[in-house]
Amino acid sequence: MNTIDQSLFPLYEFAVNRAGVGIHAVDHTGRTVIYNNKMKAIEGFELEEVADRSILELFNLNQEESTLLRVLQSGIEQLNVKQTYWNRKGNEITTVNDTYPIFHEEELIGAVEIASDVTALEKFILHPLRKDSDPVTFSQVIAKSEEMKAVVTTAIKAAQTKLPVLLIGESGTGKDLIAESIHNEISPANGSFYTLSCHRSDSSFIDRLHEDLNVNEVFTLFCDRIDLLSIPLQQKLYSFLKSIGQSGHQFIASIGDDPVELIGNGTLLKDLYYFFTSFAIRISPLRKRKEDILPFVNSYLEKRKKRFGTSLDGIAPEVEELFLRYDWPGNMRELEFLLDEVSSLASTESIISYGMLPLHFRLKTDGMNDNPIQAADFIVKPQKELLPLDQYLKDAEAYYLQKAMKLHEDNITKTAQALGMSRQNLQYRLRKLKNGRG
Ligand SMILES: Nc1ncnc2c1ncn2[C@@H]1O[C@H](COP(=O)(O)OP(=O)(O)OP(=O)(O)O)[C@@H](O)[C@H]1O
Questions:
Q1: Rounded to whole angstroms, how far apart are CA atoms 117 and 121?
Q2: Gene3D superfamilies annotated for this entry (predicted)?
């Protein structure tokens, strides 16, 4: 870069950081060199965590999975690649990515990924099973766990008394579903069910509430994620709610975190919290009530079969085990999304096998083990029972191979070279390990 270019650098930096799309650039070795503010927001990373680390390390990806690396290797651009995933902060994100190789004087010097965050848009696209479906009622809520049973019991009570309700739970736990079920449980029935989505940041929608809601009918108003509104907007909403009075309406709100914490850190207005909290209903994350996973899968497959005549009606034991072990940061929505993806690709299969799971899910869950082997397992201690030598050597081999693979970014050729063995031999041992893990 000459001096003139360098003096323009603050302009470039400003423009990149202000851009409404995520920008991630790597140099020819795969090191991150640009990672703008929007990309940080999308992927839930901070710049310090990203700088000077390869994308393989960052995202725990293998080479086939990373579009940036694929483009770096092939030199061919990839356009309009849609990805849905749960980012570092556990938020569901859908992006459409364009990834370009960058050449300078005919030499490939890096690659740039431009990501458009279409998460909000995606929310408007209904899942196939919810399209044209019957009104949502408690009969559709899967509640095998004690936690979920208690949620349903309290929610029914709230519908009977018509007192305001505050639903508390992570994204995808079913707050929306419970809100709509409460509305449809009310007897005699309320008029319209309005959802006020607080995910948006403009204030005009609160100003328009007086016009948009028909205050002459008895309605249900669900204020979805009030904790995402700024405090001045929460104040505005609170004033509006007080001005219309309760007069038979059902008021429901949802928040994504513990209210005490939210009030403490200034993200939730105390008055608004008290307005809604006649009934505070906490919906636990799915990882804390795994009994609900398989009933949900069965009910999903049954509904899909009925509606679309698909042949899937169960899951293989190894998939079942994986589903029960996985933590589901995106909760039921993540599970539902995964089932949508698998079933849309299925043709004549009747059972969901491991091989039918999408690559991104297999990669996330690969190596998940109840007791992953740790270095400390090889230390011989007087109070520890000794393992038979065979077992010890097998565990040591597994540990050593895993570490060696990680060191070489899961590259079989490089790892085999470093360990002084053939690729085939390494592949055979890795396969054996994987099968042995069952
Ligand atoms: N217990 C359940 N039984 C059946 N379906 C469920 C259950 N919980 C969640 N779902 C389904 O999972 C998906 C996500 O649920 P929902 O949209 O209600 O979550 P949410 O907590 O409102 O998420 P967000 O905070 O992101 O708005 C929906 O399609 C919903 O029908």
A1: 9
A2: 1.10.8.60, Homeodomain-like, P-loop containing nucleotide triphosphate hydrolases, PAS domain
